[in-house]
Amino acid sequence: MPRAARVHLAALLVLMAVPYPSSAEEPASPAGADPAARLVGVWGSERVFGPEVRGELTLVRDGNTWQARIAGFEVAGRLEKGTLSVVLPGGQGEFRGTLSPNGQKLRGHWIQPKVIVGGTRYATPVELHAIQKDVWRGDVVPLDDRFTLYLVIQQATDGTLRAFLRNPEKNFGSRLSLRVSLTGTTLRLVDPQQPNMAFEGTYDEASERLTLPILFLGPLDFTRRDRNQASGLHARTPAPGPYSYRKPIAEADGWATASLSEVGIDPRPITTLVQRILDTESGPGAAPAIHGLLIARHGKLVLEEYFQGFDKERPHDLRSASKTFAPVLIGIAIDQGASLRAESPVYPLFPEYRGTGQPDPRKSALTVEHLMTMTSGFACDDNNDDSPGNENRLQDQKTDWYQYTLELPLEHAPGGENAVYCSAGINLLGGVLRNTTRAWVPEFFERTLATPLQMRRYHINLMPAGDAYLGGGLYMRPRDALKLGQLYLAGGVWNGKRVVSKNWVERSTAHHTNMSAERTYGYAWWRHDIRVGDRTYAEYEAGGNGGQFVMVVPELDLTVVFTGGNYGQFPVWKKFREELLPQFILSAIQTRR
After folding, report:
1. Distance from C-alpha of 417 to C-alpha of 130, rounded to nearest angstrom
2. CA torsion sign, 344 to 349 to 350 to 355?
3. 413-443 pLDDT per residue, tens
């Protein structure tokens, strides 16, 4: 399953490598004489590139004039058609929101500048409360532009020094196996299989510091780390003893909690699974990198565990699992009376682009349902690098991504039994929402889905024109992502409140198209049959690159979330569903309960 990410990691590695011809490699010296031997161990570097503007936001109204204060800035606001907007100079951030009818709240989104690692802007919900007449205040908490990199240097059995890289956030450099050499203060890291793939930096013995330039990130300083100083490298820090299960803690986010045994789950297989995750150490090979594991049964959260430096308050990149939210929003819009149906033709919903591109009479048959089931017929295949509509090419566009998608040629007429994985088609649903609800999609998401589901901090990635990108990449707390599964398991209801119609839930999770012989597809829900012993369970899921899963097993009244960091390593993260789910979780269910 392709990623929904802004960064092509393989391309970055090519760009960040410095020229280092193979003829420059020197024969390995005996281990005792190799000056690089002093570098054996773990080295780490953490950088948060911003954004700098964050913290307390105060909005003051004086008659028809608005003033905003945040992080040392004081700028004027503008109220237009009920929307208040505040834009900081130099593109350092902006706020857009609306005042509640009673005047007690200002609810909106903070739009942060482009992150360094990925080049994307994000919109984060913000709520300001009246603290006195005509004064509102709240906190802005943007997505941290974070990059963590570990360099692990080891001595091989042949006496040479080898190294591997680990980056929890993006899995950056995971496919490299590097040979290490040190000449004077010059450090070189070279992949013997790809001699031109190399890094060159410096080693300062006095300060025990390595410095390596990493493309646009600039020089990164690495310092030595012991076992207790590398939380992103290890499953837990400090090193844990034997795992002991604890019931999750209830908090003000809508989740009731219970113990495993209270909902008919045998704790022993679950304990074995968590211990297996804790015992997995990073190495030069592709090991499972699980960041979070959550389980809910009978509507209660019964397991919540985090690993490799992640925790319950750190939003995780859901990658393409975010796609599933797009049809949910379509269903809500229909429920709320938008002039829209699954069978609605797509092109009339975009009158602003009428007359652009080459006409193809077959496009008149394209419906919203075709977009949701990935049967648009567009020349758009994320698994084909040459496809003009694949996600990488879409995200290279500097202009309107909706228009680019609508102008794609058709490879075949819309419809059919077989789907082609196309992020651009799912993203086009954002334009459908915009044009039929007359709402900015982040605002519609917050009002109709996030608020009813009692979601907390999340970050929606934006396209260059400022619209939400619905093809993937939403950052969200795993506890909130699990609510998507629970919402559908409960037929569209969360904690007694109807969010989306039962009919839409049933229609969304039904079999519409085939992705392969073993995998069918609904409205951005993947469908599987999971075998456990002599039993077979129907499962549907939102799934994303790296191991992002929101899994639902209706027969067992069960929802499961995995978050992970094995980006670009499909053979690794597909095992989360194919092996870990049936062997440890489903096998632990006592079906008579």
Report:
1. 54
2. positive
3. 999 999 999 999 999 999 999 999 999 999 9
